[in-house]
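Reply to thread "Modeling small-molecule complexes from scratch"

Following up on the discussion above, here's a worked example others can learn from. I took a protein sequence and the SMILES for zinc ion and predicted the complex. Inputs first:
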Amino acid sequence: MKGRVDRRELLKSAAAGALALWASPRIRGQEAAGGVRRLTDKLAVVDGGGSNVVAFSAGDGLVLVDSGAPKSGDRVTAALQNGAGASNVRTLFNTHYHLDQTGNNELFAAAGAKIIAHQRTLQWMSSDYWVEAEQRYEKARPKAARPAETFATTGSLQAGGEQIDYGYLPLAHTSGDIYVFFKEANVLAVGDAASPVRDPALDYFTGAWIGGRVDAMDIVLHLGNDQTRIVPAYGPVMTRAEFKAERDMMEEVRARLFKQVREGDGPKDMLEEGVLKGLARTWKDPEKFLYDAAKGLWAHHDKLDPNVV
Ligand SMILES: [Zn+2]
């Protein structure tokens, strides 16, 4: 089954004169040449100053998912030119409000791009907010950087022969996370709802929490098929199986945290009792993760399982 699909992809790419790109380990798009990982003849992941920017060539311009980190404009523009043969962006999706995904919004909007995001992303970009971990306010973004079009649940658009479906991933990482699914290319951008490299992060102050994260990952798993490639905000492009493994690990963490918080444990107690031990990954900053996760659990206490221990 898989072999047949790979062969079809190879034939498609050969037709596009891109066989050389596929005849190497780069077939999975893990090797970035000049900040570009090509996934199909029309779609590439480019370096957004450390974060991932998905670029789809629609013929008369690009559709991007996320715009890269602040001050990476020249780098992203060069990578787009290199990877997509163009840098004129028609449509820009923001997977959420964070600066490392929206840093070049002004640049692309000034050049004519329409920014699409979830309503809650617009709200977070429209007002100052307190960053507790750094004891400072983050300023609201200028109007030019904010989404021009927002949605609440799902949407769809056509561009360059591609159907692009997008939808809400409630409370996975912030209050405004979305997926963007390029159906023909079979590539799904999920922003920070997947985190194969960095610690999974929960902006509890927006309402994000671990139960939301697992539910959102289930939404993603219902979209695509076994061949779907999933692009996280940072790190390598994931297979569906890799994404599922991360989802299952997060579900294990969720179940453990529910139990601990019901017993009245705080984040330090959880860490001491080894709540993150024996998992398929380690945390770089387990205390921060557990602090944020515990805050999120308190905010969603009404959704905890009944205590049947
Ligand atoms: Zn983020």
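What I'd highlight from this example: Residues 204 and 292 are 6 Å apart (CA to CA). The domain at 32-247 is CATH 3.60.15.10 (Metallo-beta-lactamase; Chain A). Questions welcome below.
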